From TrEMBL:
Signal peptide start and end residues: 1-23
Entry protein name: SCP domain-containing protein
Any Pfam family: CAP
Segments forming domain SCP: 84-195
Region described as Disordered: spans on this chain: 201-222
Keywords: Signal
Lineage: Bacteria, Pseudomonadati, Pseudomonadota, Alphaproteobacteria, Sphingomonadales
Comp. bias regions, Pro residues: 207-222
Organism expressing this protein natively: Sphingopyxis bauzanensis
Domain of life: Bacteria
Amino acid sequence: MMIPVRWTTAALVLGLGAVATSAAPSRFEAGVLAELNRFRSDPAAYASDLRGYLPRFEGRRLRGEADGEIDILTNEGVAAVDEAIRDLRSEKPLPRFQQSDLLAAAAADHVAVQSRSGAVGHYTRGNGPGERMKARGGGPYVNEVITYGHHSAAGVVHQLLIDDGVPGRGHRHSLLRPTHRYAGIACGPHRVHRTMCVTLMSHSPDGSPPPPPKRPPVTAPR
């Protein structure tokens, strides 16, 4: 089956069952976190993983990799994959993400709503990721990436890095941000794209304000 889905809104897992209401990660969610950390540990080496996409293209159509996985009509075809490979080759290792239960809970709130509605995007009932974090008792200093449609943890991460059709490659740059130290992930079914996965990232486990920049010491005049 072919659907006109961008990679920015396309990735994840079938058969996840009901959306988790707790922050305890499922096996799949833990797998996505592990894949993110494998990428961040050595982005330059991870670039070679993306080469596996190239033989699957027929023009702009990307054939589904696993049984039952949908084909995706991309915007840019192999050009976006080649660009991602070149970009990652110049990146240095980054700090690994630590699991945050609070970030995962706010991500799960979004999955719970969109699983039922079939909507896509970062807002539910006018509330974005910052508002969802504040409702959970955290702060709004978070960054969110979402995928719909794939069946593997690697597919989720690959899709965000390739970032087909997204001006500025915002999802890729979010995953490459060195100030992001914590992540919370929630995945579940989706009425339209079958599956979805939300990743919330922050410099802190609760989205609290970042510390003020350090000022150089003031030296008294002699």
